[in-house]
Design goal:
about 160 residues; mainly alpha; about 0% strand; about 95% helix
């Protein structure tokens, strides 16, 4: 059986108490100091991480704002470029139509001039042919006054028929 010896109990309790005092003086304070230091280091790391997260969110927010502004600016520039292209296209078309109308008017004037020249030449040729035909018919030479009168009558008769 097991016997309890009061001397061993006292010496064991005393040794245990002394060991606790020695551990408390020598080991407990350095362990607590090390744990406090570690706790502060962890707390500071958490605070730094939190601050870094806030900064990252702030930077991300600014980046999103800048990206939205850049997108808006790009869309604005695209709209302006399209409007400018449309304006240039319209101006070019207007200018081309104006130039084409100018060329058409010039061609019509030239055609009209050529027509008048051709009519004048034709009148002269017809008059000459009429005079020659009349000379052959009459077998006589017509003087200039009669010739002009015959030509004018003939031209007038042609105008009436046309």
């Amino acid at each position: 059986m097991l016997q309890l010896d009061p001397g061993v109990i006292i010496w064991t309790a005393l040794t245990f108490g002394l060991l606790l005092v020695v551990l408390r003086v020598m080991a407990w304070k350095p362990i607590l100091a090390m744990l406090d230091t570690r706790e502060q280091t962890i707390r500071q790391s958490i605070e730094k991480a939190e601050e870094a997260r806030r900064e990252a969110e702030s930077i991300l927010s600014k980046h999103k704002e800048n990206l939205a502004k850049a997108e808006e600016t790009a869309q604005h520039m695209i709209r302006e470029a399209r409007e400018l292209a449309e304006k240039i296209r319209n101006e070019t078309a207007t200018r081309a139509n104006f130039e084409a109308n100018k060329l058409i008017d010039k061609a019509r004037e030239e055609i009209e001039r050529d027509k008048q020249v051709a009519i004048t030449q034709l009148h002269g040729l017809v008059a000459e042919l009429a005079v020659k035909a009349a000379e052959k018919i009459l077998n006589e030479v017509i003087d200039e006054t009669k010739q002009k009168k015959l030509v004018e009558n003939f031209i007038n008769s042609l105008r009436v028929q046309a």
